[in-house]
Amino acid sequence: MITRKSPSELEKMRRSGLLVYQVLHSLADMVKEGVTTHDLELSAEKMIRDAGARPAFKGYYVPAAGSRYPYVLCTSVNSEIVHGMPSSKRALQAGDIVSIDTGVELDGYFGDSALTVPVGPINDSLRKLLRVTAESLELAIAQAKPGNRLFDICGTVEKYVTSNGFSIVREYVGHGIGTKLHEEPQIPNYVDRQHENPRLREGMVLAIEPMVNEGGPEAKVLSDKWTAVTKDGKCSAHFEHVVAITKDGPWVLTRP
What we know:
Elements: H1 7-30, H2 37-50, E1 54-55, E2 61-62, E3 67-68, E4 73-77, E5 80-82, E6 97-106, E7 109-118, H3 124-142, H4 150-163, E8 167-168, E9 174-176, E10 183-187, E11 205-208, E12 211-213, E13 219-221, E14 228-230, E15 236-238, E16 241-246, E17 249-252
Antiparallel strand pairs: 1-6, 2-3, 4-6, 5-14, 6-7, 8-12, 9-10, 9-11, 11-16, 12-15, 13-14, 16-17
Helix pairs in contact: 1-2, 3-4
């Protein structure tokens, strides 16, 4: 069942969303050669707890992994698609890209967002990958309005990404969000005709998150049971925003 939020609930989600924005952009400013993903983790947890919020990812149980996620952030470097785990042994190198994904719970409502950051100068292909992934998210957000259907969002991402020569990760999807981190509906980044295609209605809140590969779409999970990587070893980018459907159009809760 898709839960629609009241205006007062959206205001609470807005506060969660802005906190996630502040955390992510502070971390993006930290990204440089030699910084470890564990350095980012420590800073994120302090910022979240100092704001009176709870890290949404830490302790989150995922049946496929058979355990609770142990970190505040997912830090996915280069060929890592999602769910890369912070490590004091993973120092960022010039030319890398790192996806930083985090969520918070504040006053009972969740925020969730991700961005992919270059580590110093990156090559032309990676610059295009980041640009196209971010642009596909913006195009999808523009479709998040009452009367459209879910596939308007999904198809917009798929068409833009593939027309630019990249591929869509199929194993991982966006989601509804509210008093739970993951709610209905699931939001693929491609049109899956076996998937439900609900009408978008005022009060729905969607976490839209394109995951785009430089090479083929195939993914695999490493032996840690969390980190998803591209099978061909090429790079992947990930951007995410939480978007409310309103009568005035899409309202992005995870940016000012």
